[in-house]
């Protein structure tokens, strides 16, 4: 791989990699402190933790924007300009240089201020959500939005990108609003039509099956067992609980997944864990010897989301999965679902109906939740609405798009942690991930052959191996668009997701 470099250039390349790895070392220390902040930080420790994380983020930024680091990357970029851009060495130089160019546009004091605001913002969001009072979070969010607007302006200055696109680019490199809008519009129409047909369908599910008593301890043990069965390696990761499920990587062999459980709602904890385990398996499938460098990093959050949604939905909500798992679930939660048959349980976990909470939404309505957030955060950044307008704007969109009005801030505008963490531009990647999950699963079925039979036996190895080989191990050597086309033979499209939903849901609801 490294034969494209002469001895002097190899030395230069190695020095750049050392600097990038050192920056990642500091970043993961900050990430560890933030993980701790989400899992058990004492209430009064928040301000000092914000100082700690802000200092570390500032040090990371300084390393990634040092002029000597940039000079070496520029020299190496000239060296690899005629090499295969998808090779490990060339991709490392190209992507690190891309990161450097983005990072150097952000003033150090803005990076530190944003880190401080988001750590404190998450603390304020947590308190506001518990109190069901947006006003407790409003001022923090005003500060965060102001800082993110400033960051977007800095990054987009002198380019053809908008402020919002500059923020979006951090999560989905190269994405454009008009392209996203076209893709989402092609999904919205057929999706709304399917949801409407299901609403009036002759066969409906009995969701009360999933609202019986499921002791938290039993859910915790069961979810861990299922995560291990599909391939999450607990020697390289762990499962914890928090108010908003997430996955974070603290090292090449330290992947933390977090979920939450409710005694009278089984899908929240189980499918939330499957979802985060999918994220974790992507991180565990990356090449550990390239950790901190592009070949050992995920390509985009859309692709990351495709892995979590694939395990949560294409696998976890399939009839084959519950053919394998239902008897174990009955034993784990005895006697809660002793009387439930496979057909009833399978239909229940595929219930389609509008709901308030995004992370608990069904496969079909989920994307409507995302499109609402995509529109609102874009309007925030583009100054078409202000933070004070958010609760009313949120409620109006839920009424118009889903036909329901949030009864409270906690179940409305405060339900997601993203804006408090400064993750503006993140939400569209969820729908991109849903589209990619269906397209990748379709390709895996064609490649593996007897995939449904394997799942019904609880044999997830072939699918996990296929994803590791075709998606995970590529790292950032291909763009997200390039990777999906390389693996599936087609550009990203809404058709595979709609085909999958229609073929699964139509028989369940008596539409065929």
Summarize the model shown:
The protein has 512 residues and is mainly alpha-helical. The chain has a three-stranded mixed sheet. The chain starts with 6 loop residues before the first helix and ends with a helix.
Please name the CATH architecture of the largest domain: Orthogonal Bundle
Characterize the largest beta sheet: strand count, sense, and whether it forms a barrel: 3 strands, mixed
CATH class of the largest domain: Mainly Alpha
SSE order, one letter for each helix or strand:
HHHHHHHHHEEEHHHHHHHHHHH
Count of folded domains: 2
Helix content: 55-70%
Q: Separation of termini?
A: 54 Å
Uncertain runs are none
How confident overall, as mean pLDDT?
96
**CATH fold call of the largest domain:** Neurolysin, domain 3
Rg over alpha carbons: 23 Å
Cofactor: Zn(2+)
Function: Broad specificity carboxypetidase that releases amino acids sequentially from the C-terminus, including neutral, aromatic, polar and basic residues.
Keywords: Carboxypeptidase, Hydrolase, Metal-binding, Metalloprotease, Protease, Zinc
Protein name: Metal-dependent carboxypeptidase
């Amino acid at each position: 791989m490294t034969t494209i470099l002469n001895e002097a250039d190899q030395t230069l390349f190695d020095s750049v990699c050392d600097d990038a790895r050192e920056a990642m070392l500091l970043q993961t220390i900050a990430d560890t402190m933030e993980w701790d902040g989400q899992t058990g930080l004492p209430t009064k420790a928040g301000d000092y933790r914000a100082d700690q994380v802000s200092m570390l983020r500032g040090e990371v930024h300084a390393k990634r924007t040092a002029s000597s680091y940039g000079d070496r990357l520029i020299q190496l970029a000239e060296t690899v300009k005629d090499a295969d851009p998808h090779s490990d060495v060339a991709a490392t130089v190209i992507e690190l240089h891309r990161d450097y160019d983005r990072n150097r546009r952000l003033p150090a004091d803005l990076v530190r201020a944003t880190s401080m605001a988001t750590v404190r913002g998450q603390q304020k969001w947590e308190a506001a959500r518990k109190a069901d009072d947006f006003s407790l979070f409003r001022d923090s969010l005003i500060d965060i939005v102001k800082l993110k607007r400033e960051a977007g302006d800095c990054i987009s200055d002198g380019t053809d990108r908008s402020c919002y696109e500059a923020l979006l680019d951090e999560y989905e490199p190269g994405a454009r609003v008009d392209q996203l809008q076209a893709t989402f519009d092609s999904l919205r129409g057929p999706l709304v039509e399917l949801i409407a047909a299901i609403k009036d369908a002759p066969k409906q599910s009995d969701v009360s099956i999933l609202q019986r008593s499921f002791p938290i301890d039993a859910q915790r043990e069961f979810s861990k067992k299922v995560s291990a069965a599909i391939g999450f390696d607990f020697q390289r990761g762990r499962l914890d609980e928090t108010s908003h499920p997430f996955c974070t990587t603290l090292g090449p062999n330290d992947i933390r997944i977090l979920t939450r459980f409710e005694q009278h709602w089984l899908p929240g904890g189980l499918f939330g864990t499957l979802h985060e385990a999918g994220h974790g398996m992507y991180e565990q499938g990356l090449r550990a010897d390239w950790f901190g460098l592009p070949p050992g990093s995920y390509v985009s959050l859309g692709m990351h989301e495709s892995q979590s949604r694939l395990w949560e939905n294409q696998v976890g909500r399939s009839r084959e999965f519950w053919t394998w798992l239902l008897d174990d679930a009955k034993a784990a939660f005895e006697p809660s679902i002793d009387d439930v048959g496979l057909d009833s349980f399978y239909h229940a976990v595929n219930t389609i109906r509008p709901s308030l909470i995004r992370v608990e939404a069904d496969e079909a309505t989920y994307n409507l939740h995302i499109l609402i957030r995509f529109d609102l955060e874009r309007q925030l950044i583009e100054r078409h609405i202000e933070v004070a307008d958010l609760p009313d704007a949120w409620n109006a969109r839920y009424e118009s798009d889903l036909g329901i009005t949030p009864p409270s801030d906690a179940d409305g505008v405060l339900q997601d942690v993203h804006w408090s963490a400064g993750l503006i531009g993140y939400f569209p990647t969820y729908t991109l991930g849903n589209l990619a999950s269906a397209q990748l699963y379709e390709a895996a079925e064609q490649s593996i052959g007897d995939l449904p039979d394997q799942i019904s036996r609880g044999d997830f190895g072939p699918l996990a191996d296929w994803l590791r080989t075709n998606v995970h191990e590529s790292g950032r050597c291909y763009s997200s668009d390039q990777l999906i086309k390389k693996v599936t033979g087609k550009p990203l499209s809404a058709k595979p997701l709609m085909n999958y939903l229609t073929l699964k849901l139509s028989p369940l609801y008596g539409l065929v």
